[in-house]
Design a protein that fits this description.
Layout lengths: L5 H9 L2 H26 L2 H50 L5 H26 L4 H18 L1 H16 L7 E4 L2 E8 L3 E5 L5 E5 H6 L2 E3 L6 E9 L5 H9 L16 E7 L4 E9 L5 H18 L23 E3 L5 E3 L1
Antiparallel strand pairs: 1-2, 1-5, 2-3, 3-4, 6-8, 7-8, 9-10
Length: 337
């Protein structure tokens, strides 16, 4: 054996039986195609059909062992894949630290990896050169990565959301000018369902780079219902009238929290107050605010407490008695009030 023959010998020793069988089959196919073309040129059509049938028969016979081996390996690892998938799903569903969005991502990733692994094993049993295939897929992956830069950013941001868990499916959040319940979290986007039944889709990178207010993170949420009274009214009387609305019949309110009416500002025409309520469910904040705005108005009216509105008082220096102000109508005639 000479030095120049050494790589060829090493290559022959290291090749698999499946690869040798495939190479032999390919060689026989090439020779068969050449012979078939020669017969066609000579006009021997009967021999052409015999050549084709003989080639297909020989190819099938020579490939049967590889096909049987590939079927056996594929069936075995598919059963193993199904078993592992059931175990992983059971563990994720029993774990309290894994929400539904993360469970979905983990199961999808496992499915892609599992099927890819089974496919590679089957192709290997058929004698296909996997090194060249993997190298080609790697080059294609780089090209796709450069072309899909935004998608990769969303993918990484989606992983960040699922691991950091600033919110989860079912939470009520505010993102920019949108308030809604998180309905789905994927690697690419997060979906919100607003109270008016709209679905808003945010790219994952937007959810990571912008402020997100999670109203459900603490369990109990405080809602402030503002209102005002005139300066001549007493704050304690208004507080008593409004607090009488909280008789314990509203199941939306958290029972073990101290609801209160507080003064927040001395405004130009009113004393501004707030009714502070604590809710069991953050999703009730809009209907609760609307309901108690109406209830507060009715309670203050029943208690004969004035609710002010913007108005202007005019004082004239040196006037010892009220002055009658006349208004000129649209027809030019003077009219008094």
């Amino acid at each position: 054996m000479t030095f120049t023959q050494l790589p060829q010998a090493v290559q022959q020793d290291s090749s698999s039986p499946a690869a040798d069988s495939l190479n032999n089959s390919l060689d026989r196919i090439g020779q068969g195609v050449t012979d078939t073309g020669r017969l066609m040129l000579e006009g021997e059509w009967g021999l052409v059909w015999e050549q084709i049938l003989s080639g297909l028969t020989n190819l099938f016979i020579s490939s049967v062992p590889n096909i049987i081996s590939a079927i056996f390996v594929g069936a075995f690892f598919y059963g193993l894949y199904r078993l592992l998938r059931g175990v992983i799903r059971g563990v994720l569903r029993k774990s309290r630290g894994v929400d539904r969005g993360l469970e979905t991502i983990v199961m999808k990733t496992f499915r892609v990896v599992g099927w890819g692994f089974i496919l590679l094993l089957v192709l290997s049993q058929l004698g296909i050169n996997l090194s060249a295939l993997i190298a080609g897929l790697g080059i294609a992956g780089l090209a796709v990565g450069f072309a899909a830069k935004d998608s990769l950013e969303n993918f990484i941001s989606g992983l960040t959301i699922l691991l950091d868990r600033p919110f989860k499916v079912g939470d009520w959040v505010t993102v920019g000018n949108y308030f809604g319940r998180v309905s789905n979290i994927t690697l690419r986007s997060t979906r919100l369902e607003t109270p008016n039944r709209q679905t808003v889709v945010f790219p994952s990178v937007h959810m990571v780079t912008n402020a997100v207010i999670n109203h459900s993170a603490r369990g109990v949420l405080r809602v402030d219902v503002p209102f005002g009274i005139a300066y001549k009214e007493r704050i304690e009387a208004a507080r008593e009238a409004v607090m009488s609305l909280l008789d314990g019949s509203d199941d939306r309110l958290a029972p073990d929290w101290d609801h209160a009416v507080v003064a927040t500002k001395l405004n130009d025409s009113s004393v501004d107050l707030e009714l502070r309520l604590f809710l069991r469910d953050a999703g009730d904040q809009i209907p609760v605010r609307l309901d108690y705005t109406e209830k507060i108005r009715n309670a203050l009216r029943d208690a004969d407490i004035e609710i002010p509105f913007p108005h202007l008082q005019l004082f004239i220096d040196g006037a010892d008695a009220p002055i009658k102000i006349e208004r000129v109508g649209s027809d030019g005639d003077a009219g008094g009030d």
